[in-house]
Design brief:
alpha/beta; TIM Barrel; eight-stranded mixed beta sheet; 2 domains
Length: 339
Amino acid sequence: MNDMRRILGTLDEGRETMNNTFRNLRIARHGLRNYIMKRPLCVSFEVTYRCNARCEHCHLGSEQEDSSPASPTHFGQRCRELDPLVAQISGGEPLLRPDILQIVKEIRRPSSTPIVVLTTNGALLRKEMYYALKGAGVDEFSISLDFPDERHDVFRSIPGLFRKIERLLIDIKKEPRKGITLACVVQRQNFRDLIGLAEFARKHGVKISFSTYTWLRTDDKSWMVPKDELDELKGVIKQLLDFKQRYGTVFTSEYVFQRMVWFFDKERMPGCRAGDRFLVVNPDGSLSPCGLLTGSYKNRQEIIDHFLSSNTCEACNTSIRANTEKSWNVLLADAIRNL
């Protein structure tokens, strides 16, 4: 009987491995197709502007209800229309939507793309909600974390937030495929803590990614890493790349880190591909080129006709931008490593 169970277990593992291989091939093919056809690689579904945090580096944070919020069905229709490789469900805080599970189900296409990523501050993501969202179709959770201790609570204005995130990671410790990446926005106050954050992620068996603080959100450049501290940041980044090589738990590529340093140095990033490589679905279902250049376009063709040709913005280097504006060879190399 025990031998039979082992055999059945091995067959189940083999079947799952084969399914994952086929899905990865479909993902690679979809990404290549969108890249060649100049279709968006990532679409961020900002399903609400409401948020229960008051982050010091963000322009959102209101509990005011959204006007005319789109239905889950409408978000699903938008996803099929735009056909991205990655569908990011964000906000605001997306878990404030009472119909968030239905939104995920409408966007998700079983055994196919898009890859569904849910971004959250983690305050409402308890164990039960985590498993419900995974069951609905979330592939990856991106949980914001700015400090490896209670300073995170102060920065996000949510008392006890760091321990809530830690509690979730402990509660799902035995989950073999957690699908969690901690997301840190690098800025002047926390860049010396990045190794500590990487260690925290590794301790709990999850990955961590790093993105660049963007002054366009608040028009506040005091959070930018100043020029006379960039050498110190470069040293931290070197340690993170060594950490990535050793443990494989740092998601961020060397290319993205290089762009980070460049942006802090120049305070700008030319060549914006908003509306092309990536775009945003607003809470009411209309489209914006990005979350910082909001608009109300009916379809992507309107963005192409009325935004792309005149876009001269250089004021951000958000994670979605940094990861979708890679050249084809860098994009392919990073995709292979991450798959």
